[in-house]
Amino acid sequence: MTTDFQTAREALGERLRELRTEAGLEGKDLAVRLGWQPSKVSRLQNGKQTPSAADLIAWARAVDRPDVEAELQGLRAGLEMKQRHRSWRRQLASGHRGRQEIAVRQTDETTEIRGLEVSRIPGLFQTPDYARVIFDSNAEFRGIPSTTEAAVETRMRRQEALYKPGKSFRFLVCEASLYHRSCPADVMAEQLDRLYGLVGQRRVELGIIPFGTQLRRTAPHAFWIYDRRLVIVETISEELWLTGDEDIELYERAWDWLAESAEYGAPARRLIGRARAALDRA
Q1: Is 27 found in the same domain as 155?
Q2: Which of 86, 113, 128 is the last residue of a domain?
Q3: What is the dihedral of CA 6, 232, 126, 259, to 10 degrees?
Q4: Which pLDDT value is given to residue 88?
Q5: Rounded to an integer, what distance in angstroms lies between the CA atom of residue 108 and that of residue 124?
Q6: How far is Cα of residue 136 from the mean position of the Cα atoms in its chain?
Q7: What is the mean pLDDT of each run of 10 residues along the chain (282 residues)?
């Protein structure tokens, strides 16, 4: 399937080819001018490789068109934007399992994950029944094939990372997540019991941001930080994969400020226990 990103990369490659032919150069001649292998020229023209900013500057100058540098950089910026924005429609076209496999790989490659969840329990801490309800609901909402059982199995496999030496998981959960219930009461009760047991567990730091606490920064949406290399943000329509230093620093600051207002250890258990007791009274 052709993606928006690949289509944009091919369009950029076609523009590079056009500039080369207008200059009266064969691919091998341009490669000589640039000091590149001819295969690199071919890959860039055919949309098989993403050019760097320096590649585009060199190309424009090699074809004696420094005036198009800004145009080429603009096309590249648009390309990067399409790479950052990952449509749920495309990612989940065949169900949830594929995206869950990506999550497994990202977790395996990461030493420390920091996350914030505003209205639900983090996937790494979900029980099978809670996860099953989440996947079923999302499949219905998006009108996609139901691959719930395979997705749940993969999510549970991902949770094996919680017990691997050398990894750490630091999560902030808004207290609202303990009360927002998209599942039957018995499923939510089991989920809260699971969360209660995770507080104080080795390699897991779980903070609950209480109702009514003063915040230096509000929590507008959920996000996950993978080491210091990637931030993933979910919206209703797409996922944002942010890798720029400024973006990562901004989300790290947001996480640090929110963490200042969280409760840990015994106070966190009390908050979870209070939500659990409320289920029994309902």
Answers
A1: no
A2: 86
A3: 180
A4: 81
A5: 13
A6: 21
A7: 64 91 95 95 90 93 93 78 70 86 91 97 97 95 91 96 96 97 95 96 96 93 94 90 86 97 98 95 74
Closest of 175, 188, 178 to residue 129, by C-alpha = 188
Phi, psi of 111 (to 5 degrees): -90, -45
Domain range for 22 is 4-86
**H or E segment to which residue 169 belongs:** strand 168-174
Q: In this structure, which amino acid lies at residue 132?
A: R
DSSP state of 123: G
**Number of independent structural domains in the chain:** 2
Residue 90's pLDDT is: 74
The tokens describing 166, both together, are 């050398």
**What's the confidence (pLDDT) of residue 77?**
74
- Residue 97 sits in the same domain as residue 186: yes
Are 103 and 82 part of one and the same domain? no
CB 126: neighbour CB atoms within 10 A? 22
Interstrand relation of 85-87 and 112-117 (parallel, antiparallel or unpaired): unpaired
C-alpha dihedral over 1, 109, 9, 65, to 10 degrees?
Answer: -170
Same domain, 77 and 176: no
Asked if 175 contacts 208 with a C-beta cutoff of 8 angstroms, the reply is yes
Confidence (pLDDT) at 83: 59
Pairing of strands 223-226, 204-209: unpaired
CA angle 262, 268, 269 (to 5 degrees): 175
**CATH code for position 20:** 1.10.260.40
Residues 68 and 134 in one domain: no
Instruction: Kindly state whether residues 79 and 155 are assigned to the same domain.
Output: no
